[in-house]
Amino acid sequence: MLRFIVRRLLQLVPILLGLSVLLFAWLRALPGGPAQAALGERATPEAIARYNELFGLDQPIWVQYLRFLGRAVRLDFGTSSRTGRTVTTEFLERMPGTVELTLFAMVFAIGVGIPLGYLAARRHGSWLDSGAVIGSLLGVAIPVFFLAYLLRLLFAVELGWLPGSGRQEVRIDATHITNFYVLDGLLTREWDAAWDALLHLVLPGIALGTIPLAIIVRITRASVLDVVNEDYVRTANAKGLSADTVRRRHVIRNALLPVSTTIGLQTGLLLSGAVLTETVFAFGGVGSAIYDAIFTRDFAVLQGFILMLAVVYVLVNLLVDISYGLLDPRVRVR
Amino acid sequence: MTAMGDVRRQRIDELAARAGQVPEGEGGVSLVRSAFRRLRRDPVAILGAVIVVVFLFVAAFAPWLAPRDPLAQTLLGQVRPGFIPGAQEGFPLGADQLGRDLLSRLVYGSRQSLLIGVVSTVLGAVVGMALGVLAGAFGGWVDTVVMRFIDIVLSIPSLLMAISISVLLGQNQYALMIAIAVTQVPVFARLLRGSMLAQRGSDYVLAAWALGVKRGRIVFGHVLPNSLSPVIVQGTLSLATAIIEAAALSFLGLGDPDIARPEWGAMLSTAQAFLSVRPALAVWPAVCIIVVALGFTLLGESLREALDPKFRR
């Protein structure tokens, strides 16, 4: 198992290096180059020249790349041209919100998706089954940001049941230790602050979780349908095990293997979707920061955020891979 | 690289391996004909095909089908802050925030949306297939380099990838198409490579080798044609993703800024600002996007079943 983990970790090295080359080249290829990216679009030519000299942009390209790499390893991606703060500070401040949101979305997708997919398969051909299939097709076809707007309009603006923007009610004077607002509320025993932060997750979380939900329903359903027709399930039934035991020990356990891998695959989808949902709900996470950065041409933020998100994505997939290795011994051998 | 790579690769390999098999008991009937025969009996396929054909028809004949000029601000006089004219004589769906006929804009919008979807998918498929053929045909270090590159592209979540390309290339319809195409490349590359690897040991490839047929002819004459059905399936499904992704990029302000070309994604994102005034402005383009995406998905899924020997009965 240790060897499996080490091997997977080593496989990360070329990918991370490639990522750094790609994003280094990206910033260089932008009109105006890194100087403009750092100083903003209205920088004077003198300022750009001074910047180029200061940061060694008159050096050969490979020297520049190595320096970029050196800074990237120390998580130094320069400063935001909009706020003047370092990109890493901004990222660390905003990432907890996105993590909370994606976790909520994932819990929603799994919590609803697996039971729904399972029931649809067990009642194969019923109205519940057809509904689940149609719903899961629609869930993939609907643009995330439109769904987000609809949810916000209906439940926040019209009905007023749930908050429709931000991460927490500004009137609540909450203490923030970790920037995970729900966790902060629990740690400081400010229960109303935690509850309020949680309520703020509901609408964006549901919007964000819809695509993974649709996919999980479909895969669970297909997988359960496959498994119930397996010989070992028939054997288990024939040898007189109770329906409950067959369900728990044979059907669900085997059916969930393919589902567990898809869950890992959804991370990229969630990070993509977070840009859209966070923007609609003015959520103040990493996603809405990317939207702001696009509009203000804040290239340093874009570069740093995209690189760091890609690293997060790769690491999450690594974790999923390792946990899958734990679940299914066959994976380790390959 | 990671779980994602493995699973996707595994699925693509399975798909690709099946693509080359000749179905039992169907000798004499070509793959295409037998697939078509099954598609005709499948209501889901028919529904998908009807949707796709209707929208393609609308896009092709937009100038004749649209009741009005999509750019003419005929009803501008009726537009007031907090009020956008609804359905009335000659304007079955009402007007947009600038007094233009919504129905005509939707009809014309189908052109641009489908064009973006088709061009970016074809572009992504061609580049991806080329990379896949390169990796699969040459193997060795070429394979390693190509697949590592694909892994790197895959390590950036697709929308973020599209955003960075759009920002780099500026805002125009070509940048939009290229940005979406790049996110489609990895799937097709993997698909083709897997298919080629699966066929490498097959009898007809070995026979061709033994006869001294050159590598190029084996690849383009034997292996490639046998890999096409999973590519067609994936292409149909990718069209749906491409159209939705184009809408997302429009929403982020990275769409085509040319107002002379109405496009559903752009219409949908502008309409968000008027959602409380007149929801129909957002609902109609959204419905178009959803229905088209659904149409391509249904068609793709039933094509998968029709072309897949596992489902043959």
Automatic annotation (TrEMBL), chain A:
Superkingdom of source: Bacteria
SUPFAM superfamilies: MetI-like
Membrane topology: Multi-pass membrane protein
Record's GO cellular component terms: plasma membrane
TM stretches of this protein: 101-121, 133-155, 197-217, 305-327
Cross-referenced CDD domains: TM_PBP2
Alphabetized InterPro entries for the sequence: BPD_transp_1_N, MetI-like, MetI-like_sf
Compartment(s): Cell membrane
Primary location group: membrane
UniProt keyword annotations, A-Z: Cell membrane, Membrane, Transmembrane, Transmembrane helix, Transport
Every ABC transmembrane type-1 domain range: 95-324
GO biological process terms on file: transmembrane transport
Family: Belongs to the binding-protein-dependent transport system permease family.
Protein's recorded name: Peptide/nickel transport system permease protein
Provenance organism: Geodermatophilus obscurus
TrEMBL record, chain B:
PANTHER family, sorted: OLIGOPEPTIDE TRANSPORT SYSTEM PERMEASE PROTEIN APPC, PEPTIDE ABC TRANSPORTER PERMEASE PROTEIN
Superkingdom assignment: Bacteria
GO BP terms: transmembrane transport
UniProt-recorded name of the protein: Peptide/nickel transport system permease protein
Keyword Transmembrane helix: yes
Keywords: Cell membrane, Membrane, Transmembrane, Transmembrane helix, Transport
Localisation: Cell membrane
Coiled-coil annotated residue ranges, if any: none
Membrane-spanning residues: 44-66, 114-142, 149-168, 231-254, 275-299
Family: Belongs to the binding-protein-dependent transport system permease family.
Topology relative to the membrane: Multi-pass membrane protein
Gene3D superfamilies: MetI-like
Pfam families, sorted: BPD_transp_1, OppC_N
Gene Ontology cellular component terms for the protein in this record: plasma membrane
Native source species: Geodermatophilus obscurus
Domain ABC transmembrane type-1 residue range list: 110-300
